[in-house]
Amino acid sequence: MRPLYVSRTACITRQSVSVNGKELPVSSGDGRFLAAVYRTLGIDYPKFFKMDNLSKLGFLASELLLREDRPRFVPREDCAVICFNRSASLDADTLYQATIGPGEDYFPSPSLFVYTLPNIVTAEIAIRNKLYGETSFYICEAFSAHQLFTTVSHAFADSSIRSALAGWTEYGNEVCEAFLMQIETFPPPETALPFSVEFLTRIKNKL
Questions:
Q1: Taking Cα atoms as reference points, which of 61, 55, 22, 21 lies closest to residue 41?
Q2: pLDDT confidence tier of residue 26, bands split at 50, 70 and 90
Q3: Which value, in Å, is the radius of gyration of the alpha carbons in the chain?
Q4: Beta carbons within 10 angstroms of residue 179's beta carbon
Q5: In the prediction, which pLDDT does 31 show?
Q6: How many separate domains does the chain show?
Q7: Would you say residue 103 has pLDDT above 80?
Q8: Alpha-carbon distance 128 to 165, whole Å?
């Protein structure tokens, strides 16, 4: 297997936002934390406000990772997008279920239904950044550094894949946490770290 390196990391919780371990100041005076992160990053992407919370979380983590890429938004077929979580799109599913009331209150919302699949997260990231490699979203009973490491490593068995955005994105039941990594096969910069089970365990424990 080709050696893999983590060149960048982005982490988001309700308490902090960081890139490569450096925290960014975020003010959420109106209580809408994800919208506050969006404004802090100065993103101009109106579609963000139509996304469900899980997609917003993954999208923002990808923006943190890629905002300094030059050139950006150039079509790439050598970059995969791979995410994991525990509760799939349950947050959006619950909101959708609430619009299906009994009797005359029955009114399912099409705008919510769009986001009742977890792989929409990886799709939104891929579409925004024109990444045409593999996109996949895996649901686990619990976070497993070994499973994440093995699955992502297998994606690189395809010799056409040279880079991946991969990580954990969980939203719902009072949990808001994400970490996304840029993983590459290129000769690493001095700041890159080997992609390993131990690395994944450390970064998840810091959330």
A1: 61
A2: confident
A3: 17
A4: 21
A5: 56
A6: 1
A7: no
A8: 13
Structural domain range at position 49: 5-205
The model carries a pTM of 0.93
pLDDT mean over 37-48: 94
Structure tokens at 61: 């983590």
Give the CA diameter of the chain: 63
Which CATH number goes with the domain that contains 178? 3.40.47.10
Supply the angle between the helices 145-155 and 197-205 in degrees, to the nearest 10. 130
For residues 62 and 128, the answer to whether their CB atoms sit within 8 Å is yes
Q: 154 φ, ψ to 5°?
A: -65, -30
